[in-house]
Design a protein that fits this description.
It is a single chain. The protein has 34 helices and 30 strands. The longest helix is centred in the middle third of the chain and has 35 residues. It is α+β, with helices and mostly antiparallel strands. A hairpin with a 2-residue loop joins strand 28 and strand 29. Strands 1, 2, 3, 4, 20, 21, 28, 29 and 30 form a nine-stranded antiparallel sheet that branches. Helix 1 packs across helix 16, helix 32 packs parallel to helix 34 and helix 33 runs antiparallel to helix 34. Helix content is about 55%, strand content about 20%. The protein is elongated and about 125 Å long.
Length: about 1050
């Protein structure tokens, strides 16, 4: 290909300058348009099918409802797993779509699920309500506010919360505003069972009187020649007082409702899941951002609205901030800009020190240019700014200057040797442009397995590939088009300027008050590679090539050692988040009341109130926190569960509070299962150590799960070992004397309805008030509802209008039943869960347990399974999805190498250098005590691309020298000497640019792995590769004539 792009750019300077300025402007504009969020866009492939069957036990629900729905869902074939639980009267089936589906496929899968379940609706038992579907799990409510007021009840708080909701909904970029912890209003009619029996007032009489009085029925209208006049009746309930005065006809006399019952306005009893802020009940207002919005801009808008709304509230009512995602994002962007600035300064220092000031300036100018082009590319491909793309940008920074350094270095060397600017730029294009392009594409291909990984982990980290590839491709364009232009303007004219020693040598001489050192005078035949340093380096390379077998054996030995060392590196899935929140989970025994859960939560609140270093804490009683952070492991509503989110004022405080909480909470709540954890990064996992025991017989599964739990708890590194379900709940069983009941005209249904009405209350009508619909419920008085012992004396109405004590027609027994039954893929499944007590990674603990778990597995009856879950399972899924992309990566790399080198043996040689980076990776990870996680694994794959790029440029140079007629031995050594500076500089720029990134919790291990790998691989490229080349092609030293 004879067209020379670098020469063209020097012949069209005005055009090149115009494009440079245009791209800068486009880049700056694109940066302002990028969407900003905390986490990358991520699809939750989860759908819930909920069904209610009042009156059924957990076992009946599991067999009659849950199993039918699960069976039908399994016919879709689109599931990764189907897990479900059955509680008394409630079934919840969760459908997890396969990881391999993209977010675009999900709506069709959800449609399919709805269709399948609707098809079997007629097969469900009579009396089943639903099924109801929910697939909105991915909404992140980044901003959560709470409305509290000690002297205000929930009704007043809700009235204000509704107004605030409307105001917040008007803020641009807001998608949803949801209210949390609402308590429904109720009007209670409490009627003493004994009083009713004495007066002979049947429940039906009250219900009938109420409905006849309050029903909405049209009374018609008059149609006159001029008007249509509606006829309206009074008498509908307009206040609780009206209800109290409601006349009821009993026999032949009329009585008022308040004569026989207590009528008052209240809230749900038992209460619905509540939200408590700093020890007070409140109503949460959760705000989510629309897709592709800018979280920082949203944060500013919400802050203004928040300040304005606080002023509109009555005295004593306060609106507080619980969770503020924009602040967290702002913090991480500020941190990113600081790290980016540090990395840019480091890269510039490398350029200035090694290339000289003016040559270094060329590299300095190319950095903002390449960054601007990268932002334009990100905007074009719709990649926003979030913690993954920001880390990828810093990672790319160390790589994007490589091409500029190689191009300007070659140009400067040629100008030193007397070439004109145009000729030097043309020469740089001829010798380096294509090896550089191939090298750039190979480095980008190193990130290909992430792009093709079809898993939630792959989706989460995909932008690493997108950002790095965009940055590398535009950096090559800059190196061949803009760098020659910049070089032409900035490089000194070596033939006319009087030569001086490098500026740092002159500075050193000045500091020591010595005369200015004299440089080697240049002439047209000057060879910059004749300095003392290069002579020594040439000698070292010559030695390596002479003792090639020793060098190769030592390198292979080091590699084998590194592979063995690697087994000692701790494994990890994703590191914990660096957000300041701490999660505290409290789980009471299955079947515990919400009142008991609330009492437990209050104890924790009292403890937290005394702690310093806490900004705020919020408790969700009866449910888990809403998703205020994308990778949150969300908990389902259950009466026996509460979750705290404690916001520490700093990361140091977070760790202190976490440790003191872990200690104290076990003493505060010895009867509850508690867990103190930090937020996760990456797809949510929950407990790090999990073993699932599945099989057909529930009791047998429980026995085996207990054996697994025993095994796990014997490991000193596992703590908080428990089964996720299995404890029975209390129940009262009434054995009805059916014959006696029939004689009295009492049926099972009548009795169940009567007990339900007395104990929990039955809906008899609705009270309408403005926009609210309030249920009117009838129930027994306080003593009858709370006192289990008085159940036998309840007066049951008979068909004759008389009543009979319950104890005469039924025998009352206290027994136990299953409170909850979990299934996974239709099999009863109990999960043994545990936390890691020490600093070890979950994978390490699981591998320690492997032999004893395998022993248990071998004793299992046929059809029973023990599977590893938790972080280890998610990690292996992510790993498998990346491995699936490896053949493509290998194919692309080999093709690129073949296109450049046109030789299978040379391609293989370059390819063999790729794994050598592992020597440095193992060494550095162990040295800096960093775990090898998913992100570090991506770094190691990408590292192999960077190493092959260096090898390729060197081998291509050797080939060019041999083609120019040099003998192979000299060509190997000369090429290595000539490529020494660009290879070392590019590696140095990449390694040093990683230093600021190595502080990051998320990207730290990846940065350390790349630093270690590149340092070792660079030395191997310069010393091992020439030896390998000489050995491979059996190059002999030619005797020199002296």
């Amino acid at each position: 290909m004879n067209f020379n792009l670098s020469e063209w750019s020097l012949k069209n300077k005005a055009l090149v300058l115009y494009f440079m300025l245009l791209l800068m402007v486009v880049g700056v504009y694109s940066y302002t348009q990028l969407s900003q969020s905390e986490d990358p866009p991520f699809t939750f492939k989860v759908m819930v099918v909920q069904t209610y069957w009042p009156g059924a036990t957990a076992k009946e629900v599991a067999e009659q409802v849950t199993d039918r729905i699960e069976k039908e869902l399994m016919t879709t074939g689109q599931y990764d797993r189907i897990s479900s639980y059955s509680r008394p009267g409630e079934s919840m089936v969760t459908f997890f779509a396969k990881d391999t589906y993209t977010s675009a496929d999900i709506p069709d899968i959800w449609y399919n699920v709805r269709k399948k379940v609707s098809d079997i609706q007629h097969e469900l038992p009579v009396g089943v309500q639903g099924p109801f579907f929910n697939d909105e799990f991915g909404d992140t409510f980044g901003n959560i506010y709470v409305l509290t007021g000690k002297d205000f009840d929930y009704a007043l708080l809700k009235a204000y919360a509704d107004r605030l909701q409307l105001e917040l909904q008007r803020v641009p970029d807001v998608a949803k505003v949801e209210l949390i912890g609402l308590q429904d209003q109720k009007i209670w009619i409490e009627l003493s069972n004994t009083k009713m029996a004495q007066l002979g007032v049947p429940v039906s009489a009250i219900q009938q009187a109420l409905q006849q009085q309050n029903n909405m029925v049209s009374a018609g209208f008059f149609e006159t020649p001029s008007d249509r006049i509606q006829v309206r009746l009074t008498g509908k309930l307009s206040s609780v007082e009206d209800l109290k005065q409601l006349p009821i006809l009993v026999g032949d006399k009329t009585i008022r409702l308040s004569d026989v019952a207590e009528v008052y306005r209240g809230f749900s009893e038992p209460a619905q899941p509540r939200m408590r802020f700093m020890g007070d009940n409140g109503i949460g207002i959760a705000v989510s951002m629309r897709k592709g919005g800018d979280i920082i801009a949203l944060g500013k808008q919400l802050q203004q609205t928040f300040s304005h709304l606080q002023k509109t509230l009555p005295l004593g009512m306060t609106l507080s901030k619980v969770s503020d995602q924009p602040v967290a994002v702002q913090h991480s962007i500020r941190e990113f800009i600081q790290v980016l600035a540090e990395a840019v300064i480091i890269v510039l220092l490398v350029s200035f020190f090694s290339l000289g000031f003016r040559t270094g300036l060329v590299v300095a100018f190319s950095i903002p240019l390449v960054l601007a082009m990268t932002f334009a590319g990100m905007h074009l491909f719709d990649v926003g700014l979030h913690k993954i793309s920001l880390g990828a940008l810093i990672l790319a920074l160390g790589l994007l200057v490589d091409d500029a350094i190689i191009a300007v270095e070659m140009m400067a060397i040629k100008m030193e040797q007397g070439y004109s600017r145009l000729k030097a730029a043309g020469f740089a294009w001829k010798t380096t442009a294509f090896p550089m392009l191939t090298g750039t594409l190979i480095t980008a291909a190193g990130f290909l397995p992430i792009a093709t990984a079809s898993s939630s982990t792959g989706e989460y980290t995909r932008s690493i590939f997108q950002v790095v590839t965009i940055a590398l491709v535009v950096s090559w364009i800059a190196a061949v088009v803009f760098v020659p232009y910049l070089g032409e303007k900035l490089l000194p004219d070596f033939s006319h300027t009087p030569q001086r020693a490098p500026w740092y040598q002159r500075l050193w001489a000045k500091l020591r008050k010595q005369p200015e050192p004299q440089p080697v005078p240049y002439d047209h035949g000057h060879d910059p590679y004749q300095t003392r340093f290069y002579q020594a380096f040439r000698h070292a390379v010559d030695t390596c090539v002479s003792y090639r077998k020793t060098v190769i054996v030592v390198t292979v030995g080091l590699f084998v050692g590194a592979v063995l060392l690697f087994k000692l590196v701790p494994q990890q899935f994703f590191p914990p988040s660096n957000r300041a929140e701490i999660l505290v989970d409290i789980k009471l025994e299955e079947g515990a009341s919400l009142t008991a859960t609330e009492q437990a939560a209050k104890k924790v609140e009292q403890f937290l109130a005394k702690q310093s270093g806490i900004d705020n804490y919020v408790a969700y009683v009866g449910t888990g926190s809403p998703r205020f952070y994308l990778p949150l492991d969300q908990q389902l509503p259950q009466a026996s569960f509460a979750q705290f989110v404690v916001l520490a004022s700093s990361l140091e405080n977070r760790n202190q509070i976490r440790h003191s909480l872990e200690r104290e909470i076990k003493l505060l709540l010895p009867y509850a299962r508690t867990r103190v954890s930090l937020l996760e990064n990456g797809p949510p996992v929950g407990y790090p150590i999990q073993y699932r025991v599945s099989g057909e017989d529930q009791d047998l599964v429980r026995d085996w799960a207990q054996k697994v739990a025993q095994t796990v708890s014997q490991n000193p590194n596992a703590s908080n070992v428990h089964l996720d379900w299995g404890e029975p709940s209390k129940r009262i069983q009434l054995e009805i004397d059916q014959e006696r009941a029939r004689q009295l005209g009492i049926s099972n249904t009548d009795l169940a309805n009567f007990l339900n009405s007395s104990l929990t209350g039955s809906v008899i009508d609705q009270y309408r008030e403005k926009t609210e619909l309030i249920e009117i419920r009838l129930r027994g008085d306080q003593n009858e509802r709370a006192d289990v012992a008085s159940l036998g004396s309840l007066a049951v109405p008979t068909s004759s209008g008389q009543s009979v004590p319950l104890g005469q027609i039924a025998k009352i027994n206290a027994t136990f039943e299953d409170g909850i039954i979990w299934h996974r893929d239709r099999l009863p499944t109990i999960t043994v869960r545990a936390d890691v007590r020490t600093d070890l990674q979950p994978a390490t603990v699981v591998s320690e347990l492997q032999s004893s778990i395998d022993q248990l597995r071998s004793q299992l009856p046929s059809g029973y399974l023990i599977d590893v879950g938790g972080a280890v399972e998610e990690s292996s899924k992510g790993q498998a999805s990346v491995n699936a992309g490896m053949p493509l990566f290998l194919g692309v790399v080999l093709t690129l190498l073949m296109l450049q080198l046109r030789s299978i043996s040379r391609t293989l040689m370059v390819f063999l250098t790729a794994p050598l980076g592992l020597i440095g990776v193992s060494l550095f990870l162990l040295l800096f005590n960093k775990p090898f996680g998913f992100v570090a694994m991506l770094g190691t794959i990408a590292l192999s691309g960077m190493i092959m790029r260096n090898s390729l440029i060197l081998i291509d140079q050797i080939e060019q020298d041999i083609a120019a007629g040099h003998d192979p031995w000299t060509a190997i050594i000369d090429a290595t000497v000539r490529r020494f500076r660009p290879i070392l500089l590019t590696a140095l720029a990449a390694v040093l640019a990683m230093i600021p990134l190595s502080r990051s919790i998320f990207f730290g291990p990846m940065a350390v792995a790349i630093m270690g790998g590149l340092i070792v691989a660079t030395f191997l490229t310069l010393f091992f590769l020439p030896a390998l080349y000489a050995a491979w092609f059996k190059v002999k030293k030619t005797p020199t004539l002296s």
